[in-house]
Amino acid sequence: MEGDVNWEKCLICGAKRFGEALRCIRSSRRHNEEEQLEVYAQIHRNIHLLWDKGIPLPSVSMPKTLTAKSMFDNSGKWHDYCRSKYSDSKVQLLLQSHQNKEPEPEPEPASQAPKRSRSNYDNQLCIFCQVVKQGVSGPETLHEVTTIEFGTKH
């Protein structure tokens, strides 16, 4: 809530650290009121975008109910470092990073090939055609194997 905000501290981290200046866009003579309000709206929009995506923001103590208009009306302040963490470009990077960490959906069970265990292997069957090869004196014996891993001769 708006009443829970100490307007003399940083809007974002909620602290007023010794030696770190707090900035207020309202004291800028370079920006008109509409531009100043847009700066508050950008901060508000970016932090809420991250919250909405479920990205934890441990360094943000700003109440979720705080609006850009109330930030503007009360001349909200911030540390330059805190504000820079929630610039448009850094928020996009955080969103991309979060999206890349999300697990891929599991494939359909029907599309997966059945797993075979070694205990089910019948060494009397050809590994390619699955047919028992009969020689003159019984099943044929494999005399030579060539695979990429095994080499050209056994």
Question: What would you note in describing this structure?
Answer:
The chain has 154 residues and is mostly helical. The chain has a domain of 100 residues. It is 29% helix and 5% strand.
Distance between the ends: 76 Å
Summed up, the helix count is: 4
Strand order of the largest sheet: 1-2
- Report the uncertain regions: none
Q: What's the overall geometry?
A: rod-shaped
DSSP E strands, number: 4
**From N to C, what is the helix and strand string?**
EHHEHHEE
Residue share in helix? 25-40%
Characterize the main sheet: 2 strands, antiparallel
- Quote the average pLDDT: 79
Provide a brief overview of the structure.
By secondary structure, the chain is mainly alpha-helical.
Fill in the keyword field for this structure:
single chain; 154 residues; mainly alpha; two-stranded antiparallel ribbon; 4 strands
